[in-house]
Amino acid sequence: MKTVTPNQAEALQSREWRVVDATGKTLGRLASEISQVLRGKHKPTYSPNIDTGDFVVVINCERIVVTGDKLDNVRYYRHSRYPGGLKSRTMREMMATFPDRIIYEAVRGMMPKTKLGRAQMKKLRVYAGNQHPHAAQQPQALEL
Description:
Elements (H helix, E strand, L loop, with lengths): L7 H6 L3 E5 L5 H13 L15 E5 L10 H4 L1 E5 L6 E5 H7 L1 H12 L4 H7 L2 E3 L13 E2 L3
């Protein structure tokens, strides 16, 4: 018996495009499923040191569901790198202005904090409406 280890060329050929409709989905559960598909853990050829994951397109992200008081208690921070430049927004404010960043940040927190994790995050596309410009890739629906 031989153990077959995929190489990067084989992983590039087996990539697919997946579409996820976020309508009515819970944020954390959706983000964990998306991160597993981005990493390639759903495939039998998964290897932790090679990017074997698929591309993921998330649509209708403004219709995501959060439970409890997270809309008012969760805060998103950014810093301008100037003294006193820390700014923050609640999840409710982010939903009103940038709903796509909520899913992006949730998935980013579940990915590895390495070069490979940053490369895998480039395969995530998030859109607020139900239209996306990736129809030419013929994405398949991903049931979560």
